[in-house]
Specification:
This protein is an all-alpha fold. It has one domain. It is 55% helix and 0% strand. Helix 1 packs across helix 2. The chain is rod-shaped, with a radius of gyration of 16 Å.
C-alpha cells in the first residue's frame, strides 16, 4: 500500500511556519493585545502576524 501523505522536510517547514502564523494571529486578535482593550480586526492581526 502506498503512503499518500509523506512528510518531507519542505512540508514540515511549511507546516511549522503556517502554524506560527496561525498562533500569532490568535494571540494578536485577543483584546489584551491592544492599548484600547478592544478586539482588533482579524485581517489586521493576520497581516501583523
Amino acid at each position: 500500500m502506498q503512503r499518500l501523505h509523506v512528510l518531507t522536510s519542505a512540508r514540515i517547514l511549511m507546516l511549522g511556519f503556517l502554524s506560527l502564523i496561525v498562533i500569532g494571529t490568535v494571540f494578536l486578535s485577543l483584546p489584551m493585545s491592544t492599548v484600547s482593550g478592544q478586539r482588533p480586526h482579524l485581517v489586521d492581526a493576520l497581516f501583523t502576524a
